[in-house]
Write the structure tokens for this entry.
Amino acid sequence: MICNIVQEPLVPVTKRASYGVPRIALEGDDARNGVHIDPTHWSAIIYLTLPEHCQGGTHFLRHKATGWDRAPVFPGEAEAKGFTSCAAATDQIFNEDGHNPDAWETTMIVPMRFNRMVLLRGYLWHDAGVSFGKTLEDGRLILPYFFERSDML
């Protein structure tokens, strides 16, 4: 179980439309390729693309203007950079720079491997990298899961 790995009490966030729903991205599908966060405590991505088609992976990034590699989550953090709140900072960064590659520096890439799970804090800035493949059989296929701490609900 995920809670045993992270040593935190967790519950799945099944109300998100994409929870446990396979997601395919094919070459030319750019709509979901922007930098983003997941509004959950933990996110899990399981790569289901067959080994012979795997490309890229999940990119983790730093926002150049703020120096942040994650969305602000602690009291006063966003305000110290001139934002009115953590939510306002996240929204502004996403809306202004989410699809602007020049605004970001890649800090790490977790390579795509069949059946690999990437477990990450949802507040880390990340993107899916490049979409690839022309069919369901050779495209970027993932299975996303999301979790919250059960003691914080």
DSSP finds two helices and eight strands in the chain. The chain has a mean pLDDT of 94. Residues 22-152 form one domain. Helices lie at 2-6, 86-97.
